[in-house]
Design brief:
Elements lengths: L1 E5 L3 E6 L2 E6 L2 E5 L4 E6 L3 E2 L2 H9 L3 E5 L5 E5 L8 H12 L1 H26 L7 H11 L8 H17 L1 H4 L17 H22 L19 H24 L19 H16 L1 E4 L4 E4 H16 L13
Parallel strand pairs: 1-5, 2-6, 5-7
Antiparallel strand pairs: 2-3, 3-4, 7-8, 9-10
Helix pairs in contact: 3-4, 3-5, 3-8, 4-5, 7-8, 7-10, 8-9, 8-10
Pfam families: Cas_Cas1
Protein name: CRISPR-associated endonuclease Cas1
Enzyme class: hydrolase
């Protein structure tokens, strides 16, 4: 199974039992049996016939605007549904003590994975001993937090220290001082925003394959117009997938100033750069590790689905949830 990315302007149609993309009069058939998600970056027209077919095949369609920023998703009608699980998921959210426990797991695992990144890049040339010590101290305070707000404040302090190391880790001369989202104000912030939107959509697609409701979250407050559970679970995997990719691509000069629209203060990635990042991202998702509990190799992408399954076991009181932590 794989993702399919469309950057060109064209038309997406159903043809027999497959999907076809038509660009400049030329048609390319896509085998629906092997597609999990379709990502639309170009101006692509489609109709209800195509959407109905995508629903039948459980294909999620993610839409991005002209500049590569996430706009929304076509989320097929769920067939893998469970009313009893939905009720239990809501109960777990309403039980504040339990909700706080799950939220702590997300932050604890995400922060631990941040710590592992810092440890990985700590070397003779890049001195991160002090930052490692500060992050370790804050991680040990996670269990003491008694509200979601306090927990998120602590996580913000961990990320502030973490981001302060990026100018040391990244070998290119980029003035990255802090995380700026709306809009991103330099190359690194633009890369973070772009890759975060990709990992949010991937996580959403993996949640879709389970009986979890993606709008009922535990760390981020559930709200309108967003699938907040994907934000929760993504916290665990952003250091592993997004941050490692940014460090690698910048340090290997696979992404440089030439890949940005410098006239917009590096706000927009050029299409050629987005394609390079997508290719790297796909390979990263397909990377496998030997799973300690399953005793077999699983991909990073499947780890996200396993995280959803682990959360289900906690919700139905089968096994207490422990979020994923890097061991390598």
């Amino acid at each position: 199974m794989s993702n399919f990315y469309i950057f060109s302007n064209g038309e997406l149609i159903r043809k027999d039992n497959n999907i076809s993309i038509i660009v400049d009069g030329e048609k390319k058939d896509l085998k629906s049996e092997v597609i999990e998600d379709i990502y639309l970056f170009g101006e692509v027209s489609l109709n209800t016939k195509l959407l109905n077919f995508a629903s039948q095949k459980d294909i999620t369609i993610h839409v991005f605007n002209y500049y590569g920023f996430y706009s929304g998703s076509y989320y097929p009608r769920k067939t893998n549904v469970g009313g009893s699980l939905l009720v239990e998921q809501v109960k777990n959210y309403l039980d504040y003590e339990n909700r706080l426990y799950i939220a702590k797991q997300f932050i604890s695992a995400g922060s631990f994975n941040i710590y592992r990144n810092l440890r990985y890049y700590n070397s003779r040339d890049v001195k991160l001993d002090e930052e490692l010590k500060q992050v370790d101290i804050l991680i040990k305070k996670i269990e003491d937090m008694d509200t979601i707000q306090a927990l998120m404040g602590l996580e913000g302090n961990i990320r502030r220290i973490y981001y302060s190391t990026w100018n040391k880790i990244v070998k290119q001369d980029i003035d990255f001082q802090k995380r700026v989202k709306r809009p991103p104000d330099n190359m690194i912030n633009t890369l973070i925003s772009y890759l975060n939107s990709l990992i949010y959509t991937t996580t959403l697609s993996e949640i879709y394959k389970t009986q979890l409701d993606p709008t009922i979250s535990f760390l981020h407050e559930p709200g309108e117009k967003r699938f907040s559970l994907s934000l929760d679970i993504s916290e665990i995997f952003k250091p592993i997938i997004v941050d490692r990719m940014i460090f690698s691509m910048l340090n290997k000069a696979e992404i440089t100033e030439k890949d940005f629209d410098t006239g917009s203060n590096f706000l927009y990635l050029k299409e050629s750069a987005r394609k390079k990042i997508i290719e790297k991202y796909d390979k990263r998702l397909a990377t496998t590790i030997k799973h300690r509990d399953l005793d077999r190799s699983v991909s990073y992408r499947y780890l996200m689905r396993l995280e959803a399954y682990k959360l289900i076991k906690h919700i139905i009181r089968e096994k207490e949830y422990e979020a994923f932590r890097m061991w390598w």
